[in-house]
Amino acid sequence: MDNKKSNPPKLAKLLLNISLPKHVKDEICGDLEEEFNLYILKEKGDVMANRWFWSQSLTTCIRYLFIKQRLLSALTVILAISILATLYVAITSLSYASKEFFNDDFWYNGNIHLLFFEPKFWSFTSNSIFESLPLMHLVDSHSAIWACLALLSLFKLDQKYQFNTLIFSILSLALMLSPYLYGVITLQLSSLSNKEVGPLIALMWLPIMYMILPIAYLTVKKLTNSNKNRPLIS
What's the mean pLDDT in 224-233? Predict the structure, then answer.
């Protein structure tokens, strides 16, 4: 038989290369190509062999695309981007919303999470995404310093102790949410003026905004390597 007919479909091979993890890619692709060539020799039909290879390729890709680690990775990325976008609008509202936007008590008693259940917040969201606004309101030195120190500490600790995904996630959340918890406690225990509340709320939100994408990246990286079954702390 002509050697040209013994080549599997290139598009199916490309799909396998994109979908399969590196540690199994060569073995699975090699086995499928070997069976493909045997199938051609047995059936003496290029069309049937191509159909068989496509069927096996799609089945294999679906199985590896929907394994637990990949689903968790996709959810982590989607959640991180959603939080980033929501906080961008929330922090923008602190700088550009009208005075009526801040009439609610939750701005002053620590329950600022209630903002995200307010229709006026989502109305502001739909309006602000179409406006070209300066980004300087997203810059805060105290938040940036905390985020840098927290990420550096997290990176160094993980390098030293090789945390598994669960411990890494818990530690990441603790560092990322510490300024937020500090702000909630301060608002509940203190009576602050309007000028004091704004910077404090920015300090609660901005570190999360700065840290969410790096932490999401490191978490996905750990999920990808979770097949190695590393101990909790080594």
Answer: 55
